[in-house]
Amino acid sequence: MNDRWDASAEAGSLPGAQGSVLSGTAAAATGAFARPVVKKRVAAHGTHRKDHPLVRDSLAVIRQDRTCHVVAEDYSYKSEAYYTILSREQAGEAIRPSSRDVLDAFVVPVCLERAKRAGIPVADWGISQAYVPLPAILYGINYFATATDYAVVRDSDQSKDVIKHITNKGKYPFCYQKIDDSATISTCTAVFGKTTENCGEIAGYAEKLYSLFSIPLVNMVFVQNGDSRALSSLAPTRYTRLSPGERAFLAAYRDHQVFL
Amino acid sequence: MSRLGIFVDRKTLSNAEQLTALIHCRDVAEAMGHNAEFLFPVDINKIPKMDALFIRARTDPKNITYVAARMAEFHGIPVIDDANSIQVCGDKINMYSHLIKKNVALPGTVFLQKTDLTVEKVTGLFDKLGAPLILKEPSTSFSQRVEKVSDIAEFFRVARRFSRMSDRIVVQQFVESKYDWRVGVLNGKLLYACKYTIPSVTFKIQASVNGHIVYCGVESMPESAVPPHVVQLGIDAARAIGTGLYGVDIKNNNGDACVIEVNDNPSLESGEDACYPQIYEQIIGHLFAAA
Question: Are residues A232 and A112 in the same domain?
Answer without folding.
Answer: yes
